[in-house]
Amino acid sequence: MTLVKTCGMTRETDIDAVNAAKPDLVGFVFAPSPRQITPVQARAFKRRLVPGIQSVGVFVNAAPTEVAELVNNGTVDVAQLHGDEDEDYIGQLRRLLDRGEIMQVFRIPPDLERAKEVLEKAKQSLADKILFDTGSKRVYGGSGEMFDWGILKNFPRPFFLAGGIGAENASDAIAAIAPHGLDASSSLETEGRKDPEKIRAFVEIVRTIDPQTNKKKAAQ
Ligand SMILES: O=C(O)c1ccccc1NCC(=O)[C@H](O)[C@H](O)COP(=O)(O)O
């Protein structure tokens, strides 16, 4: 089964929408962004989440102590490192954590040779989970821009895929490269705010994919 992550919750009503749609993970952005929230907001959102949905904190080059505090106090279950964090950083963070997991993000540049170098690093990552996103010139993440997923075909470890993913292309992505999980943010918004109907449609479409064939389940 492909896991579903919806990212960039900023309001209590967004939490109500994910509680209804039931993705596997939801993301809280702590990095500078129009979607940035405070630790106090995130704590309240985490309390409002129904059991079974994991919370993911999105960080860009934050101090490891800051990340560890939010994991260790239960605000987030997974620390998503979306900046330039390297293996030393991951080692430091790991030593500070009493619980939780680390997800390292690899941003895929348009240049094929450089993209292959990034994939080599991703294979060696010491993180528990890895995520591939578009290497945008504008922002670290949440760009809504796609990259050419073909490069990930037969990648030798499970990965999450992000970058312009939504209800319209989720089935194609699963059929093409069978990611362990899909992650979406921009496509789930209307006028910069999360849209409950778009969240529902995205989660539903991923759930209709047959895990055996990676194709849409036949109608009953
Ligand atoms: O969402 C942001 O504004 C953001 C800012 C800085 C780092 C990461 C950020 N978002 C992470 C995500 O939402 C997802 O992991 C991913 O980038 C999805 O983006 P999208 O292409 O918008 O679906």
Write the layout of secondary structure elements.
Blueprint: E1 3-7, H1 12-21, E2 25-29, H2 39-48, E3 54-59, H3 64-72, E4 78-81, H4 87-96, E5 101-108, H5 112-124, E6 129-134, E7 160-161, H6 170-177, E8 181-184, E9 189-190, E10 193-194, H7 196-207, E11 209-210, E12 215-216
Parallel strand pairs: 1-2, 1-8, 2-3, 3-4, 4-5, 5-6, 6-7, 7-8
Antiparallel strand pairs: 9-10, 11-12
Bound molecules: the ligand O=C(O)c1ccccc1NCC(=O)[C@H](O)[C@H](O)COP(=O)(O)O.
EC number: 5.3.1.24
InterPro entries: Aldolase_TIM, PRAI_dom, RibuloseP-bd_barrel, TrpF_fam
GO molecular function: phosphoribosylanthranilate isomerase activity
Descriptive account of the structure:
It is globular, with a radius of gyration of 16 Å. The protein has a single domain, classed as Alpha-Beta Barrel (TIM Barrel). Strands 1-2-3-4-5-6-7-8 form an eight-stranded parallel barrel. It has a two-stranded antiparallel sheet with strand order 9-10. A two-stranded antiparallel ribbon has the order 11-12. α1 packs parallel to α7. 33% of the residues lie in helices and 22% in strands. The chain contains seven helices and twelve strands. β5, α5 and β6 form a beta-alpha-beta unit. It is of the alpha/beta class. Bound molecules: the ligand O=C(O)c1ccccc1NCC(=O)[C@H](O)[C@H](O)COP(=O)(O)O. The site of the ligand O=C(O)c1ccccc1NCC(=O)[C@H](O)[C@H](O)COP(=O)(O)O has 26 residues, from β2 and β8. Keywords: Amino-acid biosynthesis, Aromatic amino acid biosynthesis, Isomerase, Tryptophan biosynthesis. This is N-(5'-phosphoribosyl)anthranilate isomerase. Pathway: Amino-acid biosynthesis; L-tryptophan biosynthesis; L-tryptophan from chorismate: step 3/5. It catalyses: N-(5-phospho-beta-D-ribosyl)anthranilate = 1-(2-carboxyphenylamino)-1-deoxy-D-ribulose 5-phosphate. InterPro entries: Aldolase_TIM, PRAI_dom, RibuloseP-bd_barrel, TrpF_fam.
